[in-house]
Predict the structure.
Amino acid sequence: MELKNQNSGGGVQIKAVDEKNTKNVAVQTQVSNINREFQEKSTEKLAKDSGLNYVDIAKTPLNPDFLKIVDIAVAKNARVIPYYRQGKVLYLAVEDVKNANTIALLEDLKSKGYENIISLASKSGMDEAFEIYDQSQKYKKIEVVENVEKSSIGTYEKEIANMTDLAKKIETVTAQEALNMLDVGAMKTSASDVHYEPGEHSVVVRFRIDGVLHKVFALSHDVFHRIGEQLKYASKMRLNVVTIPQDGRYTFNFNEVKIAVRVSSIPTPFGESFVCRYLSSDNKTLGLEELGFQDEALAKLKRATQISQGMILITGPTGSGKSTTLYSVLQIMKSEENKVITLEDPVEYQMEGVVQSQIDEVKGYTFANGLRSILRQDPDIVMLGEIRDLKTAETAAQASLTGHVLLSTLHTNDAVETIPRLVNMGLKPFMVAPSLDTIVAQRLVRKVCEACATKKVTDEATLQEFKDHGVNGPAEIMEAHGCEKCSNTGYGGRLVVAEVLEVTKDIKEMILRGASSGEIFDAARKAGMKTMKEDAYTKVSQGLTTIEELHRVIGV
Ligand SMILES: [Zn+2]
């Protein structure tokens, strides 16, 4: 019987054969095992005789990452497997120390500063180890990359509850597994971004959770290098390019939701810095109440969703949740009887029943040009990502004066300030006054984590602060701590704090006669407008957030 070649990958082959042949395979496996044992015994003896160490390489757990020190094709050709590493000390399984390719590779490793510790391994053992490696790569491509959730969430859940453990774990697993763990970690903590920031001694990993960056852990440059390579590989960046910024993306599934990761890199003196943005395709728009609109602000915004023409503007700085509110308003306004077209940069949520288009500055499809094209498509409602210049503002105002509802955003600090901003842009007051219907100014505050927050007695100074802002200070306010549930941040989820200015007939007249912001503000107050600060203090008194969070977002 020819025994020589039947043994390679014995254990792996069994699965591939169908049940009818089980008996046959069992016999083959038995033969293979006998042959393997025989080979291992004789290799062990040979090693002893030549004064070398011996390793049963097929039974030695090897980290595929060690094969990154040596290219897999080179390793196969040289019949060498690096199976363990301790700093620069490399443990290698070698089939034949006299093989010219083997000698060349060992010399090459030496020249790279590695200290080679060689053990003799059998031919069948080497074959099987390479086979296991190939299989593990195939398995990963199918199972792990395509479906992180099913294959790994159970395994990683524990580590991810504790980020320190995750950092340790990352040091020992393959780069691909490490990246998967970081992805799952980002999902579990509801992080929107993961930042990798190389410094002189280590690489700091920070997660942006509810808009705030948190240092999660630091990685050694060695470990980060492998993860960086994996990131670039996954997001189809050029691996050999390290001195210019690059962009890429990759996707994975998490709890049956497809997550797209936008990766960008920039070179720094200590290596490439990466930022990964996690974009979920699961875009449930929230109701206005769920977003955090209350009382008078809610009532005014709800009224605005009933209009048939005019401009609704949502204002605030970057990251104040403007788009989210815009989509929620649009969700309420859209119906089968009206046509909704959007012009966005970029399209952030996919909305059913809405024609969404994306601006392309390079091709001249700008907000201003795009808006003109859109108006020829006979829309009832137009959502414009942002008003950035006079041309766009003019076209938008024109549209809202000719029977369209126009929704857009603007970077201003408060609702009233939006009016002089538009005028300063160059929009004539006789255009501003009739076109404006409602202006929302907003910020996002983090909700205090219900699982770990405690109550504390409100001190005198804080009570005075409430009073100064026209809100009755409560006897007790919430204090944030941190637990496993909130990834130790003390907070979970976010809430809008807002002011809603209804541009009434009186205010329109004031705009026309060039009234100051102060006068307009007073008129709005008389008409019952609650300010963003009042809304924020109210939400602290309701125990939804903390005074510290209010100070962080709104200022003292
Ligand atoms: Zn908590």
Q: What stands out?
A: The two ends are 87 Å apart (CA to CA).
